[in-house]
Amino acid sequence: MENKPKLGRLDKMARNILLDTSKMLKDAKTELFSDIRGRVLEIGAGIGVNVYFLNKPEVSEWIAVEPDTKLTLECREALKVMGNRAKVFEGFLHELDEPSESFDCVIFTTLLCSVPDPTQMVRDAHKMLKPGGKLYVIEHMGAGLGARAVFQLSAKLPWHLITGCNCRNNPVKALAQPGLWKGNEKIELSDVPLRVKKFSILLELLKPFGMVALTKS
Questions:
Q1: Other CB atoms within 10 A of residue 144 CB
Q2: Does residue 46 form part of some domain?
Q3: Which domain holds residue 105?
Q4: Residue 114 to residues 118, 146, 157, 162, 204: CA-CA distances in angstroms?
Q5: Mean pLDDT in the chain?
Q6: What CATH number is associated with residue 84?
Q7: Integer Cα distance of 103 and 131 in angstroms
Q8: How many C-beta atoms surround the C-beta of residue 204 within 10 A?
Q9: pLDDT at position 11
Q10: Residues 48, 14, 147: CA angle, nearest 5 degrees
């Protein structure tokens, strides 16, 4: 039996943020992921919360890439419900032994805020998609002006130390690289519907959220 890694205080806080964020994004994911099908690659799968949206007959295979060993055991448990249609790859995308253009769909869920080179990550995801395949993106973004922007700026460093995330994230620059997507002269993320039952100062750092589905040229 595999031993469950012990989580420190910061690890537990980061995990709880993952869960709370996923609950908050339930309606957005239901809408955005409605037409996902075929072979699916999720990059930064965390603890596998997207199983609730991908466990459907239209998904023939789901490969969940997650480099954090503290999360992969829980992710494997979550994916068991899909049997041999789903598997967890513990490592980074560039280590995955899969041919280019072999996936129908790629998923980013609050990923670009936590990778060192978002531009390269988008190019790598594009490479893995079949022609006409889709990249599904839900990202939080830095607020423009006002109290929330000031709040994010003051909390940016401690938030990054706790979660590895940039709360002033701007995913548009990485996504809008020329020649990758159909009709991408100007990429705009739609506002995300959020389920918020109670105020949380931590989740306030992550607002606003945006989402988009991009089709490979």
A1: 8
A2: yes
A3: 9-215
A4: 8, 24, 13, 12, 17
A5: 89
A6: 3.40.50.150
A7: 9
A8: 16
A9: 57
A10: 120
What is the pLDDT confidence band of residue 1, given thresholds at 50, 70 and 90?
A: very low
Q: Give the residue from 187, 189, 108 showing the smallest Cα distance to 142.
A: 189
Count structural domains, the chain: 1
Distance of alpha carbon 173 from alpha carbon 162, whole angstroms: 25
Q: Let me know if residue 4 belongs to a domain.
A: no
Q: 34 in a domain, yes or no?
A: yes
Task: Express each pLDDT in 71-125 by its tens digit.
Answer: 899 999 999 999 999 999 999 999 999 999 999 999 999 999 999 999 999 999 9
Any domain includes 60: yes
Neighbours of 132 (CB within 10 A): 10
Distance of CA 33 to the CA centre of its chain: 12
Query: How many Å separate Cα 41 from the centre of its chain?
Result: 11
Query: CA angle, corner 37, sides to 33 and 40, nearest 5?
Result: 85
Which is it for the CA torsion 41, 102, 133, 178, positive or negative? positive
